[in-house]
Amino acid sequence: MSDVEKRIGQWRRGLAGAETMTNADLQELESHLREESEHLATAGLSGEEAFLVARHRLGDPAALEEEFAKVHPQRGLVRRLSWALPGVLLYLAATEFAQALFSLSLSLGHWAGLRPTAVGLVGSAVQIAGFVAGVLVAVWLYRRHAHPGTAGGTGNSLRMLMVVAAGLALGTWAFLVLDRLLTVLFVRMVGPAQFGAALYPAAYVREAWHLLLPVVLAGLVVVLSLRRRRDFQVQP
Predict the structure, then answer these.
(1) Residue 153 confidence (pLDDT)
(2) How many structural domains does the chain have?
(3) pTM
(4) What end-to-end distance do the CA atoms of the chain give, in Å?
(5) Do residues 42 and 64 make contact, with C-beta atoms less than 8 angstroms apart?
(6) Which domain holds residue 219?
(7) Environment class of residue 75 by beta-carbon count within 10 Å: exposed (0-12), middle (13-18) or buried (19+)?
(8) Phi, psi at residue 234, to the nearest 5°?
(9) More confident residue, 183 or 79
C-alpha cells in the first residue's frame, strides 16, 4: 500500500466517527478527494503533494462535519440516541452480569469454608471485576465487528443496532433471573443471619465503587473526547 493510500485511509477513519455523515457521504467525499488528487498529479505535483493540496481544498474533517451538521441537523440527534440507548442497555447487562457473579461467589466462598465477612469481600471484588470485564468485552466486540473504521465493519446499521439491543436485553433478563436463583440458593444454604453478615462488608465496598465509578466514567469521557479531537486534526 502506497503512502498516499495510507493517508487516504487515515483521512477516512478520521471522518468515520462524524455524527452527521453516512457511508454514502464518506464515499462521495473520498471520490472527490481522489479525483482532485489525480488532477493535481497530472499538473506535475507528486502523489504526496497532490493529496495534501486536495485535502486542503476539500476542507479539514472538523469543518466538513460542521457543514454536514448544518445541512442534516437531525442526523446528529439520531446518532446520539443510537449510541445512548445501547449504552444504557450495556450498563444494565454488565450490572446484572456482575451481580450474578457476586451471588455465585457467595456460594462458592461458603463451600470453600470462608468466613461470612471474607465471602462478602471476595464476592464484591468478583462483582467489580465482572462489571469491568463485561464492558471491556463489549467494547472489544464493537471495535472488532461494528466500528465503521474497521475493515468489514457494519457501522451503525439498523440490523446491527437491532442485534446489539436484542442481545443486551436478553442478557440482562438472563443474568437477572440467574442472580435471583443464586441468591435464594445461598440464603437457603446459610440462613438469613450469615447472609446478612456476608452482605455487610459488601455494602461498604459497593458504596465506594458507586462513588468511584462516576469519576472513572467522567475521565473516560474526557479521554475519548481528546482522542476524537486528535483524530480530527489535520495530519501533516
Answers:
(1) 42
(2) 2
(3) 0.64
(4) 19
(5) no
(6) 76-232
(7) middle
(8) -70, 125
(9) 183
